Each structure stands twice: as structure tokens, then as C-alpha cells.
Amino acid sequence: MQHRTIVLPEYLNDQGFLFGGNLLKWVDEYAYITASLEFPGNRLVTVSLDQVNFQHPVLPGEILRFDISCLRRGNTSLQYHVEVIGEKLAGHDQPLFATNISFVNVGADGKPLSLQD
Q1: Within a domain: residue 56?
Q2: CATH number at residue 72
Q3: Region 5-27: what's the mean pLDDT?
Q4: Quick count: other Cβ atoms within 10 Å of Cβ 16?
Q5: Residue 37 belongs to what domain range?
Q6: Which residues contact 87 (CB under 8 A, 6 or more apart)?
Q7: Residues 6+ apart with CB under 8 A from 86
Q8: 94 — phi, psi (to 5°)?
Q9: Which pTM was predicted?
């Protein structure tokens, strides 16, 4: 699934680049939206992100595309791959960031439950 956002001035640090925390927020949010749509009826919580390595600084006005795909479905958990691509400023699609993010389905008590189809 794909999601997009534009880097606005309020997302920048004092040097004029995107704060990494904003990018991580979007990764978590868009991956959660994808998982929620693909596995409705589950109560999913984020449990981990793999490596966090920013490949390039991100400038204001950049349009970011988040390509999200399910890598693995376990009994109680899901893992998604997220690739972030800059679509506007580079003149071509430029990979900016990639990671894997994992979610677990939990009950009201916070304990893992089997995923529902």
C-alpha cells in the first residue's frame, strides 16, 4: 500500500531539514493504517522497528511516498517493510529511508492474541 505526505516547515529542525522523529512517526502511522486495513478487527500495537538509518537529509517541499508491504504474518504478530521515497526534489524517485516494523495483536489486558482474519 502507498501513502504520501509533503514536508512542511513545521516538520523541520533549526538547520532546515526534516526532523527524523517526524519521519519515524509517519512510518509508524502509515504502517499501522496499512496493517489495520489488511487485518481489520485486530488491536495492533507497535513493538519494534528494525534499523533506523537515514540515507539522505530531507528538504522542505519534498513529497514523500511510503511503500508498505507485509513481510511476515505470525500467529499474533505482523511485520511490514516500509520504504520511503522522495518523489519531487531529486527529479527522480530517490530512496531516503527503509526499515521493518512489527505489530502484535493484543487483548484488553495487553497480552498477545491470535490474529483474526
Answers
A1: yes
A2: 3.10.129.10
A3: 97
A4: 10
A5: 2-105
A6: 4, 62, 63, 64, 65, 93
A7: 56, 58, 62, 63, 64, 65, 93, 94, 96
A8: -120, 120
A9: 0.94
> Do the beta carbons of residue 85 and residue 94 sit within 8 Å?
yes
Give mean pLDDT, residues 94-113: 96
In whole angstroms, what is the distance from residue 82 CA to residue 26 CA? Answer: 10
Whole-number percent of the chain with pLDDT over 90 = 94
- If one counts the domains in the chain, the total is 1
In a domain, 75, yes or no: yes
* Three-class SS state of 6: strand
Which set of grid coordinates corresponds to residue 56? 539522505
Q: What is the rounded CA–CA span in Å between residue 110 and residue 59? A: 39
Long-range pairs, 37-42, Cβ under 8 A, ≥24: 37/1, 38/1, 38/70, 39/78, 39/105, 39/115, 39/116, 39/117, 41/116, 42/105, 42/113, 42/115, 42/116
